[in-house]
Design a protein that fits this description.
By secondary structure, this protein is of the alpha/beta class. 44% of the residues lie in helices and 13% in strands.
């Protein structure tokens, strides 16, 4: 790889341990930029940086970042630089964007239709199934799914997007040489092979450390136009992604779940605080204005059913357009209570628009 002196200096600073970044940013600013600091790097910084960081930077500078470049080549990674071609515009707009982003795979040309899907590592069967279903539906509509490659909801979201034939981007809290968790290595390779990307602000040899992940979360939300929380407890690392999303003025969605489930704590809190309810991909598509319109949804209904999208019965009929659904499935898909649905279902049944079937299921009359 051929880098300009400026790019080499920026890679040099980016490859330092994350714990040293605040101090490095300070002296970089005082020096007048990465290249200026590279050219003026002397033992005067020893006490301020500490022996470990100073020695790392001195050795890396002397080797002209040779070990870093070899690590990138070994794992098939390349860097994109803030302010230069290839750097995602959505990420560049956040308050503290990474100066360098390391990439494996194919980084999308733009993230104008992208959503971060996040949630608990200890996913329930319900949460994992819904993450896959929603990610698949969004990917089929050309929406890029961004997540963190963690166990649970992250992995399910990536898998759903791939199953939908779409692009997905995984943001890591480690370098590429120490992919975490190791059990998702096969999923990571599938993401790359099927046209997606792995990205991180950490150099390839950086191991996953606890403080890497809260910082990682600002990139997940920063790459995206919206964030969808599937499930998480109130005291959850996922909460930091939601906080960053709000700071970055991203739209926030939440999936309703069983009120008795610990994983419903954070989604319910967000819904009470004004987050958009997401019971399926169509909720995101409509709210964000991404392609699928109410007219297109209506086309799934039989021509014999004349109903306005403003009709309170419309969400129920649309939910039944493809196949019959149980009461529980309708509650999940429409976001309505059993009481609200009961009244509507009775009226639709009396007017001959739907019929009741075995197993507390309902279907359109065609």
């Amino acid at each position: 790889m051929d880098f300009s002196k400026e790019q080499l200096a920026r890679l040099w600073l980016q490859s330092a341990p994350m714990a040293a970044w605040p101090r490095l940013n300070k002296i970089r600013e005082e020096a007048g930029g990465a290249l200026a600091l590279w050219e003026r790097f002397t033992p005067v910084y020893y006490d301020f940086l500490g022996p470990e960081t100073f020695s790392f930077l001195a050795d890396s500078r002397a080797a002209r970042c040779g070990p870093l470049q070899r690590d990138m080549e070994k794992c098939g990674a390349y860097p994109v630089f803030l302010g230069e071609e290839g750097y995602p515009a959505s990420l560049a707009s956040i308050p503290d964007p990474p100066d360098v982003l390391f990439v494996r795979g194919t980084l999308p040309n733009h993230f104008s239709r992208s959503i971060a899907m996040v949630g608990s590592r200890r996913a329930t069967r319900y949460g994992a199934a819904q993450a896959k279903r929603i990610a698949k539906g969004l990917a089929e509509q050309g929406v890029i799914v961004v997540s963190g490659l963690a166990r649970g909801i992250d992995a399910a979201s990536h898998q759903g997007a791939l199953d939908g034939g779409g692009q997905t981007v995984a943001v890591l809290g480690s370098g590429f040489s120490h992919l975490y968790p190791a059990e998702n290595k096969e999923l990571a390779e599938r993401i790359i092979q099927e046209g997606g990307a792995l990205v991180t602000e950490l150099a390839p040899d950086m191991t996953p450390l606890p403080y890497h992940f809260p910082a990682r979360n600002r990139i997940i939300s920063g790459l995206s136009q919206a964030v969808l929380l599937i499930e998480a407890q109130l005291k959850s690392g996922t909460h930091t992604t939601i906080e960053r999303a709000r700071e970055q003025r991203r739209q926030v969605f939440a999936l309703p779940g069983n009120v008795d489930s610990p994983g419903s704590e954070l989604p319910l809190m967000l819904l009470r605080d004004g987050a958009y309810l997401c019971a399926g991909p169509e909720d995101v598509l409509l709210q964000m204005g991404w392609g699928e319109t109410q007219a297109e949804q209506a086309s799934f209904l039989p021509s014999s059913l004349s109903v306005s999208p403003d009709d309170p019965a419309y969400p129920i009929l649309h939910a039944l357009a493809v196949e019959e659904k149980t009461l529980e499935e309708l509650i999940e898909e429409t976001g309505r209570t059993a009481g609200e649905l009961g009244a509507q279902l009775t009226m639709l049944e009396l007017t001959g628009k739907i019929e009741r079937r075995a197993g507390r299921a309902f279907a359109l009359v065609r």
